[in-house]
Amino acid sequence: MARLSKQVFNCIKKYSLIEKGDKVAVGVSGGKDSMSLLSLIHPFREKLGFSLTAIHITLREEHPSEWIKELKLFCKNKEIELIIKKTNILDYLDRLKLKKDVCFLCAHNRRKEIFLKMQELGIDKLALGHHKDDAIETFLMNIFYSSQTCTMMPKQYLFKGKIKLIRPLYTTKEKSLISYSERHKIPVFDYGCSNSCESKRFHVKQFLKTLEKDNRRVPANIFRAMHNINLEYLPYDFD
């Protein structure tokens, strides 16, 4: 088993993300993260005993036919069931001409469409392509902008456990996924969102890069800190 595949497999086992008999959907956005996730976990189906379905939500009315062809071929070659649901989420948000919260609303609406399709298919576990860097950035974003000490988890339960979110790439660095997607020629697609460089996440990512130039261990230290909470030295109100 290649190094990255082993890392992802170990993450799945460590956090009990996938169990025998599970029906797992992967939310495929078209980016390197979700496409790499699909490629990395599909070989584990037999060993772990789960079924796998890729769900892609188109974001514009004029969906990219060439990309859809590539996605269909990619899934066919790996014997992965592919479900495509057409929406015009980005077109709708463009018409609203919002100046903020566009990324949040886009993600919220896309996730809602995936949940509805999962319910229709009888699938209750959704694998997302969030990686280690995403978790670190989210941790800082919540501190900076929401006054909360929290981040995304490797496993989360929604709607009283009816939907389970899992993140098999939780311990994987983004640069490893970039190398993997390029080396394996993973097809990727960008819907061309004009808000991608204006998001809070983008600014936090740039902030981290600045810190990393001075000390390359900063991201790893933040990730460890997320799992090394010392409540004795935090003014936490237990009442």
Write out key terms for the chains shown.
alpha/beta; Rossmann fold; six-stranded mixed β-sheet; 10 helices; 49% helix
Q: Which residues form runs of ≥5 with pLDDT under 50?
A: none
Computed structural class: alpha/beta
Report strand %: 5-15%
Secondary structure tally, helices? 10
Strand order of the largest sheet: 3-2-1-4-6-5
Biggest sheet, in brief? Answer: 6 strands, mixed
Counted up, domains total 1
CATH class type: Alpha Beta
Radius of gyration: 18 Å
According to DSSP, the number of beta strands is 6
Share of helix among residues?
Answer: 40-55%
Oligomeric state: single chain
Keywords: ATP-binding, Nucleotide-binding, Transferase
InterPro entries: Rossmann-like_a/b/a_fold (IPR014729), TilS/TtcA_N (IPR011063), tRNA_thiolation_TtcA_Ctu1 (IPR035107)
Protein name: tRNA(Ile)-lysidine/2-thiocytidine synthase N-terminal domain-containing protein
GO molecular function: ATP binding; transferase activity
SSE layout and pairing:
Layout: H1 3-14, E1 23-27, H2 32-41, H3 45-48, E2 51-57, H4 65-77, E3 81-85, H5 89-96, H6 102-121, E4 125-127, H7 132-146, E5 155-158, E6 163-166, H8 174-183, H9 200-214, H10 218-226
Parallel strand pairs: 1-2, 1-4, 2-3, 4-6
Antiparallel strand pairs: 5-6
Helix pairs in contact: 2-8, 7-9, 7-10
Protein name: tRNA(Ile)-lysidine/2-thiocytidine synthase N-terminal domain-containing protein
Binding site for ATP: 27-29, 33, 57, 129, 134
GO molecular function, one term: transferase activity
